[in-house]
Design a protein that fits this description.
With about 600 residues, the protein is mainly alpha-helical. The chain contains 23 helices and 8 strands. Helix content is about 35%, strand content about 5%.
Length: about 600
């Protein structure tokens, strides 16, 4: 039963917690028949309705991590493994969120139409205005998520009746959908504060949240996928109306830069550092690690508050306490810089891929003597975000907990992770949930948790944060004004927080060089925002996901018998081809499910599906 339970978790429910309604007696009136008089008669009911709409906000969908080159899942046959093998279609429609988001959209219309009915004695006019603004933000958010996944969708201006003739609702154009999201964000921003004064409001959108969404969608519109992409010229409604922009417009990059700068100019957000958390001396490791572990900080633009991280931590942690489900790839490991700020393929980086480290790092959080040199002298984010062979387990607070993860010969109170074949987290011992890459996620994992005892802490699940906005600005500005000094200045804000030297110091030739600087900006996104869903969307909007280097996935040599050598087995550290994933360019957009096409005959399918 335990094995079946873990598999159910793996298939895609780890990020969601759905509460099943209790059965009603036959003679009771169902909740959906509550009259408006009852539903909107008091503050508690109205607020519950709004909070249910918030419940439709999804955290990271693992499809948007596992399809990119940064991760895979250990269990064969799961949706992700089917998708990267090319086994998906409008019929199976994996990760189909069409109905989910339209249900949320419908609820926002109902809420805004009825919130005014709540008596003033129960709910003030000011709160009604605020709640309407939150609802508009949520409607815009749901549309934005649909656009990212499917492209142009159906823009509704009110709630449809359950017996509505759906066949009269074709898809709107990309620009119409984009403009509607921007309209909703503008309307919501008017009645939302720049930041919330009370912690009880953390998790609600702010003016910064609205502007951040506008930054995201402007960057999306400027990027190659939707900026004059000839591959989408066939995307037309049944009446011949073109749904995708037909020509490239370089000014869209300026609009994207301006949208990101609008968030920056609020002066309400900044990159979190450990100094904000009581530290007396700046430390890049604790800065990049603890920004995800605090109850709130000034980098958060939108989040799900008080989120239970049990499922995520269980899936990211090694056996025997975890289930080894979320596996980072060698591809993303190679993307992290050395601590001198240089890429590992730079001859000046001092990167060494052979042998064991002879000394401990100068930093307490860095590599340890005896660990493989591939993992030595890397940047702070590497140690904060990647669990590698021999690195001590994090969510195990006591010595006894740590020893639980060690084989008899390795017990030393540190809990070094044994990803090699015969290790406790290795292929021989763990069976169906064995680690398949030699790495797990460490980002967003708290040292205060104890996954052996299934104890995790509640904290915000960050959905948008300020570092992304800075990278949005640097990327867009570089595209239309590469010589602007703010490109370097903005990129360096992210690098400095990570403890790296300025980009102009290590790669001066990139300054003012649009193509070369683009390479380093996208690399910075890959590292800074890893496992947050950004890598997938960046490769999608840049039309790069189909590139051979992003479809060829490498791992460590996890399946070769170590012959009892354990951590001393050097062949474990041999780059091994894991898979050459299946790719067709139609996959830049998800298919609309056949169910939706059958229900709404006015819909047209995305090209190639």
């Amino acid at each position: 039963m335990k094995s079946k339970y873990l598999i159910i978790i793996a298939v895609g429910t780890l990020f969601l917690t759905n509460v099943l309604s209790a059965c009603k007696h036959l003679d009771e009136k169902p909740d959906n028949l509550l009259t408006s008089e009852i539903l909107w008669s008091n503050r508690a009911n109205a607020e519950s309705y709004l909070y249910n709409i918030y419940g439709a906000v999804l955290e990271i969908d693992f499809a948007h991590i596992g399809i990119s080159d940064e991760a895979s899942v250990s269990i064969p046959g799961t949706n992700i493994r089917q998708m990267v093998a090319g086994n998906w279609s409008p019929v199976n429609a994996y990760y189909d969120h069409w109905d989910h988001y339209y249900t949320g959209i419908r609820s926002t219309f109902i809420f805004e139409a009825n919130i005014g009915k709540v008596p003033e004695s129960q709910l003030s006019s000011a709160l009604k205005t605020q709640y309407k603004a939150e609802s508009k933000f949520l409607r815009g958010w749901f549309y934005w998520q649909l656009i990212k996944q499917y492209g142009p969708v159906v823009k509704l201006t009110g709630a449809l009746a359950l017996d509505e003739d759906f066949n009269k609702y074709p898809r709107n154009t990309f620009d119409e959908c984009k403009d509607y999201v921007n309209q909703l964000m503008d309307e919501a921003a008017v009645d939302l504060p720049v930041s919330w004064a009370s912690s009880s409001n953390y998790g609600r959108p702010s003016k910064g949240s609205c502007l951040a969404v506008k930054s995201q969608i402007a960057l999306w519109a400027a990027s190659p996928l939707w900026n004059g992409n000839p591959a989408l010229s066939s995307l037309k409604n049944q009446d011949g109306k073109a749904l995708a922009p037909t020509s490239f417009d370089p000014n869209k990059w300026k609009l994207a830069a301006d949208a990101a700068k609008a968030v920056i100019n609020l002066n309400a957000y900044k990159l979190f550092t450990n100094l904000d958390n009581g530290g007396t001396r700046f430390d890049p490791y604790f800065s990049v690690r603890d920004l995800f572990l605090t109850n709130w900080n000034s980098e958060i633009l939108f989040s799900r508050n008080s989120w239970n991280f049990w499922g995520y931590t269980k899936a990211s942690s090694p056996n025997p306490g975890g289930i080894n489900l979320y596996n980072a790839t060698q591809n993303v490991v190679d993307a992290f810089y050395m601590n001198n700020g240089r890429a590992i393929d730079d001859p000046l980086s001092q990167y060494n891929e052979t042998g064991f480290a002879e000394n401990n790092s100068d930093q307490s959080w860095g590599h340890k003597k005896g660990q493989w040199n591939m993992y030595a002298n890397r940047e702070a984010r590497f140690y904060a975000y990647i669990q590698y062979n021999g690195r001590p387990v994090l969510p195990a607070p006591t010595v006894d907990d740590k020893n639980y993860y060690s084989s008899a010969g390795n017990i030393d109170g540190t809990g070094r992770i044994e990803f090699y074949y015969s290790g406790k987290a290795g292929a021989k011992a763990t069976g169906i949930t064995n680690n398949i890459t030699g790495y797990n996620f460490l980002k967003n994992i708290s040292p205060a948790d104890n996954i052996r005892q299934d104890v995790t802490n509640y904290r915000p699940f960050i959905i948008m944060r300020y570092a992304e906005i800075l990278l949005n600005y640097a990327e867009a500005l570089n595209e239309y004004d590469p010589s602007n000094p703010e490109v370097v200045q903005t990129l360096n804000l992210v690098r400095t927080r990570a403890g790296l030297p300025g980009i102009e110091t290590v790669y001066p030739n990139a300054v003012g060089n649009k193509e070369l600087m683009r390479k380093y900006i996208l690399k910075e996104r890959q590292v800074e925002l890893c496992f947050e869903g950004d890598r997938y969307y960046t490769l999608i909007r840049r039309l790069l996901l189909g590139a051979a280097e992003n479809q060829t996935i490498y791992t460590m040599n996890v399946n070769e018998d170590d012959g009892g050598l354990g951590f001393g087995f050097t062949s474990f550290y041999k780059r091994t081809l894991f898979q050459k994933r299946a790719w067709e360019n139609k996959m830049y957009l998800f298919p609309i499910s056949q169910y939706q096409l059958d229900r709404d005959r006015a819909l047209v399918q995305n090209p190639g599906w």
